[in-house]
Amino acid sequence: MKPLRLSSQFVLPALVLCMAKLAQAQPATTHAATLPIADVHFHQMPFMTAEDLKARLDRHNIRWVVSAGAAGPAAFMKKDSSFARDLEYKKVLGDRFLPAVGWQELQEAESDAGTQLYAGEPNARRHVVLQLIDERLGAGRHVISETFPNAETSTTIRLLARRVATDSPVFVELYRLSIKYKVPLPMHMQWHPQSVEELGKLLASDARGVVLLSHCGKTTNAADIRLLFEKHANVLCDLGFRSPPQGAAESARDPARTIFWGDSLFSKPGIKPEWKQLIEDYPDRFMVAMDDVHRWSTYDEVVAAIRSGVLAQLTPGTAEKVAYKNALRVFGLSDAADTPIQQAETKRPDAEKPP
């Protein structure tokens, strides 16, 4: 049998096409590896120090961090409050770090009053905690922490493993404060039909407000979020805790919880096609996030997954928006090439930022 000979008219075009594809892929990967990142959902953990975090930020070109609330065991939190710890990080990181209000304040109030904090007639405990949050938001350039209307099966904090109304008086008031101080309202909300309906009512109540869905709804698929985006222009998503290694255990029980993944022994970096298409269709609605980690090695893995599993998979313009440009707009972050370290608290600008 004669050996098969391929005509140059077939080989050369195929070779050119292959080289073109490689040329397209390489710039995207390189671009994603060097983009500055804004982490819009970060929990300071007890093992961390501000100096350690700064070193990690510099190593990974993470220019900005938006706190979702400094976390830790109850005894640790009693010793050194969440808000106070965030303020200490602010002293070291300056305008690179936005402290959060509400994490410990709301949990302590719910521990005292139970879920009645959220429902029913006005009560003294609700009034006190909302007034405290208002005062702290007004005291400097601060944000609202992650809140928890529905974390029935998606938290290790036992107090919060329940569902309360997303449009309850507490969230209505927090939404009002988010408008007053021009910051989004972050919500950890699993995709229960009642929760989704209540969220829709809250979003429709005032188009000036913006809800930032922590973990992009946590238990959602891309079709869930697409439907919500089509109905409401004032809802955004962070992509925190939707990839291994953080979400590996949750994803084993519910594969929908994985959106993207980094390099591993078993797979190359990637993102689910339906999520990639959703992000490309709504490039102004998504931001990246680290969420919580329990060792620095995990932090490094999550950054690598974000860069290779999300940013490298997107078109360059969309990758830039998701990496940091959306966060600059939403949180009013400084876009200076070298973000200055300021020791003093800076007052919130009067100009309103669009969602």
Task: Give a brief outline of the structure.
By secondary structure, this protein is α/β, with parallel strands linked by helices.
Q: Tell me the structural class.
A: alpha/beta
Helix percent reads: 40-55%
Strand content: 5-15%
**Rg, Cα atoms, Å:** 22 Å
Largest sheet: 5 strands, parallel
Number of domain modules: 1
Chain-averaged pLDDT: 88
**Count of distinct strands:** 12
General description of the model:
- By secondary structure, this protein is an alpha/beta fold.
- The protein has one domain (36-331): Metal-dependent hydrolases (TIM Barrel, Alpha-Beta Barrel).
- It is 46% helix and 11% strand.
- It has 13 helices and 12 strands.
- The protein has helices at 8-34, 50-60, 74-79, 82-93, 103-113, 124-138, 169-180, 193-205, 222-231, 248-253, 273-281, 296-310, 316-331, and strands spanning 37-42, 62-67, 97-98, 100-101, 143-144, 147-150, 185-189, 211-213, 235-238, 260-261, 270-271, 286-287.
- The strands form 4 sheets. It has a 5-stranded parallel sheet with strand order 6-7-8-9-12.
- Strand 10 and strand 11 (270-271) form a beta hairpin.
- The radius of gyration is 22 Å and the shape is globular.
- The chain starts with 7 loop residues before the first helix and ends in a 24-residue tail after the last helix.
- 43% of the residues are buried.
Features:
TIM Barrel; 46% helix; 3-stranded parallel β-sheet; globular; 5-stranded parallel β-sheet
Mind sketching the topology for me?
Blueprint: H1 8-34, E1 37-42, H2 50-60, E2 62-67, H3 74-79, H4 82-93, E3 97-98, E4 100-101, H5 103-113, H6 124-138, E5 143-144, E6 147-150, H7 169-180, E7 185-189, H8 193-205, E8 211-213, H9 222-231, E9 235-238, H10 248-253, E10 260-261, E11 270-271, H11 273-281, E12 286-287, H12 296-310, H13 316-331
Parallel strand pairs: 1-2, 2-3, 4-5, 6-7, 7-8, 8-9, 9-12
Antiparallel strand pairs: 10-11
